[in-house]
Each structure stands twice: as C-alpha cells, then as structure tokens.
Amino acid sequence: MKFKPNKKLGQNFLTDKNVIKKICNFTYIDKNSDILEIGPGTGNLTDELLNKKPKNFYVIEKDKNLSENLKQKFQNKIKIFNDDILTFPLEKILNNRTIIFGNLPYNISSKILTRFILNHDTYKFKLLIFMFQKELANRIIAKINKSDYGRLTILSNWRLNVQKVMDISSGSFYPKPKVESSLLVFNPKKDYVIFKNPNSLEKVTRIIFNERRKKIRNRINRMFNYDNKILEKININLNLRPQNLYPEEYFSLAKEYEKLRK
C-alpha cells in the first residue's frame, strides 16, 4: 500500500535499500540489544533492522494510518506506540542497551535531539543514530569560529560524542525533499560537566546566541547583573562573539549562572 506523505508531519520516507543496509550495519546489534525507531513511516528501515533479531523492538509513530499499517505488516514482531515523540514517556522503554534510530522530521529534529540531551539522566541509551537535514547536521558538528557553530553544537558536545557517518542524497527518499540529509551517530559521554539543572546550559546558550553577530559583552554583563567579581572569575574575553567561545567556556558560564539562582 502506497501512502501519501503528510506534509504537516514532515514525512519523507527512506526508500534507498543500499542506504538502509549501511545504516543497519553501522553498529552491532544482537539478541541482547533493544531498538527504538522514531518515525518508522512505512517500515523500510524497520524491516531491515528486524533481521538483526534484537531482544525488543519499539517504534513511535505519530501518524495513525501508518501505525495501523505497521501493525498489519509486522504483527507482534514490534511494539508500536501511536504517539508524539516530543511528549511520549521515553523512560518507560529505554535502557543502556537501547539503540535509537530515527529518520527525523526536519521541522522538529532539533527539538527531538535536545530532548534526549537535556533528559539524559532519565533517558538511558547506547547510541543515537539520527538522520537530519544536512544544514542542521553541519550545525551540530560545527567547529569553533565557524558561522554554523551554535547552540546545538554546544549542547551536543556537552553530553555526547558526535560522528558524521555519511551524507544521504535527496533521491533516497519519497517524496524527494529539496535538501540533502546527513546521518549522525551520538555516543553518550562518561565524563561531562554536571549541572543542577541541564536547562541552565540551554538558557545560557540561547541568551548569548540570540544576537550572534554582536560581541557578548552586553549579554554577559546583564546575565550576571554587572557583578565584576563573577566576570573576573569566569575570565572570558567579552569582546568576542558567540561563535568564538569554546564549549567548555559555555559550561563555565552555565555553572556560574546556576549559582545566581539558588
């Protein structure tokens, strides 16, 4: 059965069998592995992943018609949740053995990634293997001093090791999108800066990158109420612009920002 993609849900189904095989073979999956697939669509990747015979296989599909089709196609081989990935209680199905795959809708892909990062203490997983719009993927893996270096770069580097696996042409999808995609793999870090509230880093980066072309002086001063002692302690050049600060400097800013809000 051929489904008409839902534009509102950002549906572009992965159909290229060679790409699907490469994605499935990127990491080792065995009978002790759990798989979660986000937005399986018509189940092309699902079908190939099932050949790996994981212990448990969960999918979250928001589209009701697609969910019904998946039930008919795979029967009891997978557990289907007809739900929204942005609100679904993921902690109920995740563990340290879970490998999470996702051909993410372009319109919410950054929100999905951010949710996994900020809730990492609750959401246990082994790997994230996600497809993004290439432009967004480049922002995630950007290097300091580059124009695409930004909030997602900082947040991702905080909790995850990120690796770009490959670019995927628009012709690998139906319908064919106007942009190319990239496959990124995220591996949880064992050592990272601990915050009382992970949203502190999210808020600090949002404030500073809100005016990315301007020097950070005014935003940093306002953030710390013009307290010279704090500004001396963090020892950051206030004449720099947001893309000129290392991730570690943002971590230090977020730690000091938390102290003001005890």
* Main CATH class of the largest domain: Alpha Beta
Question: What are the secondary-structure elements, in order, as H or E?
Answer: EHEHEHEEHEHHEEEHHHH
Residue windows where pLDDT falls under 50 for at least 5 positions: none
Architecture (CATH level 2) name of the largest domain? 3-Layer(aba) Sandwich
Q: Order of strands across the widest beta sheet?
A: 4-3-2-5-6-9-7
Overall number of structural domains = 2
Q: What integer value in Å does the Rg equal?
A: 20 Å
Span between N and C termini?
57 Å
Number of strands: 9
Q: Roughly what percent helix?
A: 25-40%
CATH superfamily heading of the largest domain: Vaccinia Virus protein VP39
Q: What is the CATH topology of the largest domain?
A: Rossmann fold
How would the global form be characterised?
A: elongated
Count of alpha/pi helices: 10
